Amino acid sequence: xxxxxxxxxxFSALTGIASSATExxxxxxxxxxxxxxxxxxxxxxxxxxxxxxxxxLILVVLGFYFLLxxxxxxxKQYQFKESQQYDFANNKLAYFGKMMVDxxxxxNDGNIRFDDDFMNxxxxxxxxNPEREYLSQRYPYLYKxxxxxxxxPFFDDRIDSVKPNIVLxxxxxxxxxxxxxxxxxxxxxxxxxxxxxxxxxWPNALSTSERTFGALPxxxxxxxxxxxxxxxxxxxxxPHLNLVSLLKQNDYTTQFFYGGWAGFNNxxxxxxxxxxxYIETEFPGYEKMPSYSDGFTWGYGDKExxxxxxxxxxxxxxxxxxxxxxxxxxxxxxxxxDEAYYEKLAWDxxxxxxxxxxxxxxxxxxxxxxxxxxxxTIKDFFSRYQERDDYDNTIFIITGDHITFAxxxxxxxxxxxxxxxxxxxxxxxxxxxxxxxSHLDLTPSLQKLLEGNDSIDFPxxxxxxxxxxxxxxxxxxxxSLALMSGSREISEFVHGDLFISGESLYKINDDLKxxxxxxxxxxxxxxxxxxxxxxxxxxxxxxxxxxxxxxxADWLKVVSVARYHDxxxxxxxxxxxxxxYDKEAHSGTTSLVCDTSMPYSHLxxxxxxxxxxxxxxxxxxxxxxxxxxxxxxxxxxx
Length: 638
What we know:
By secondary structure, the protein is of the alpha/beta class. Helix content is about 30%, strand content about 10%. The chain contains 19 helices and 19 strands. It has helices spanning about 10-20, 25-45, 55-70, 70-75, 85-90, 90-100, 115-125, 160, 190-195, 215-220, 245-250, 265-270, 300-315, 340-355, 360-365, 365-385, 440-450, 520-540, 550-555, and strands at about 135, 145, 165-170, 200-205, 255-260, 280, 320-325, 395-400, 415-425, 430, 435-440, 460, 480-485, 490-495, 500, 505-510, 515, 580, 590. The strands form 4 sheets. Strands 3, 4, 5, 6, 7, 8, 9, 10 and 11 form a 9-stranded mixed beta sheet that branches. Helix 7 crosses helix 18 (about 520-540), helix 13 packs parallel to helix 16 (about 365-385) and helix 14 (about 340-355) crosses helix 16. It starts with 10 loop residues before the first helix and ends in a 46-residue tail after the last strand.
């Protein structure tokens, strides 16, 4: 349903998302045009309605009453068996109005006071992980790593002697409901199902966001969601570690392969915080996915993505390396090459399952065919990789960025239900764990797995929000985990074996089935934990309190080349005189010279860098005003 997501995306982005999800044409919008016209025409024919001022006021007052008094007139989610039934039952216009009011910009942007009450909340949050040695209240997530290592027992001794290559496949809309032994709508990923049996496999993994925006910060950085997604902070992202920066400092070459626009959801900017080596989004010689009726295409398909990347690795990359893939083909509008071939494969599987009489599978055949295509391209990718010399020394990680929205969700928790598979020829054997884990747990687990290698060095102090992957065979749920909806709201929260969505609390049972809880004290307790998490998240992200800058700079070998500051508070009469600054620089002048006789004045002095500086980040903020006219002067950066 349309809600306060309009505060998050631009109008062009919203129309782009809508056009990719469904075909917008005259036939689809005609009913919405004709309905009000017919209603007015009917009133005109009957002439029974008198448009008086009082009648209009009564209608307006009643409309606002039913709209604003939503606690009485809005249905409750727990009253419905499936999420889609709840969506259908809601009055769409009233729901949209409620969300716009409840989540208006600035409502929750107030400053958080670092008082005794807030420190108690931080203590309670840190107390959820008693095995961790937390180091600070100023930095609520900062802790010292220990010697635990849940993944190491499953790997042979090669993991300690060589630096393994790591390949992360983040698969578009790979859902547990359509993949795996217990897939609710039957599995349409036969290769991944067979691979899971030879892998470390978590069928009850959770993404941390309803859309792609949360995938990379969670998987690579185990980071909190900030206000609307960590990467959405853009230039304001606080100093932090991630898997890219950790591995780069250990001589890994790092690359990101994506067939679309890397600026989507600020992915490129986020990856550059780890100083990634390559971001590859254009694949010369390869054809993009078929376009929709309006000419829209998300970019290159999965087959082209994998084929290009293998050639790129062969030509440019040496071991060890870390490759990140984000696929596209399994996204609405499900446009792929060889569509008829994969549609036949999908229908054959529907027949094999005996589901041909169920309208869900006939209506959604386009989505099923892309699941099969996605699975087949991963199979082909693995076949090609097995021919490489470095295959035996590689760890493959496969998960979904979020679920597919082509099929109904059984409950709100299923909105985040994705599989997680870790495969490597270095594994001793396969292992299936029914425990609830999340994207946040990947980086902490890989750090622990790799730091047993004497040639790999990681920092002792980290800020991971997630925990190590739970390898318990039986079902368990021990996480406290915030889940961000597509409208960038933290209304859903996992707290141990409890799950709260809005005002409804549930107990999480095996296979992520939910059992309603109506005990008011429990509801208040979990709701308070969710609220406390949100406050700490806001504080840490908005005050640069994720990771201390001195630790960040020391680990990444970041050097402050020069710092300058001038407010020009004295006005125009002093503009043009020599000004002096404190600075930290390898070399260069210590003065700012503003020469009014020249067409341009130097706002910052020249600085010469030493040869070992291979990458330079410049952050510059200015408030400009011409002292004679109100026009802004021209600024040239060179």
